[in-house]
Amino acid sequence: MTGIESAGWRKPVALLLILVIFATPLLAQQTTDEYLQGKLDGERDAKGNPLWFLAGAGCGIIGAGAAYLIKPSPPASALIGKSAEYVLGYTEGYKNKARNQNTTYACAGWAAFVLIYAAAGGFETTE
């Protein structure tokens, strides 16, 4: 065998490497797109729980803190049959948006309690 005949494998390998190099950013972009779509869908579907209003009214800053610390889980039915990237994005978007809404409800409950307490004369001192 001469050097030219043994080098016949180099051309297909070089073409394969070129395809891999140029295809990798496209595949990474597709993964990013799935993640972002999942995150947007999770944020859209997230609904806060209005019961956190009662936690804020009844427990004050502790209720608001609990609403911030507890991240609600997304519904499993929204994740069935989806890619791992989509599930990751959906879960992150859902948890962050729902937690923010729950914290808002709890802070509103706390503020409502303080306003009602002040209106009822709870902060007056008797001397």
Keywords:
mainly alpha, 73% helix, 0% strand
How does this model look, in words?
The chain is mostly helical. The protein has one domain (3-119). 73% of the residues lie in helices and 0% in strands. It has five helices and no strands. α3 (52-59) packs antiparallel against α4 (61-69). The radius of gyration is 28 Å and the shape is rod-shaped. The termini are far apart. The model has no long low-confidence stretch (mean pLDDT 85).
In short:
With 127 residues, the protein is mainly α. The chain is built from 5 helices and no strands.
Order of helices and strands: HHHHH
Summarize the biggest pleated sheet.
none
Structural class: mainly alpha
Count of structural domains: 1
Radius of gyration: 28 Å
Beta-strand segment tally? 0
List low-pLDDT spans.
none
List the total number of helices.
5
- Helix share, percent: over 70%
Overall, the morphology is rod-shaped
- Which strand-content bin applies to the residues? under 5%
Taking the alpha carbons of the first and last residues, their distance comes to 111 Å
Mean pLDDT: 85
Describe the SSE topology.
Elements: H1 3-6, H2 10-45, H3 52-59, H4 61-69, H5 84-119
Helix pairs in contact: 2-5, 3-4, 3-5, 4-5
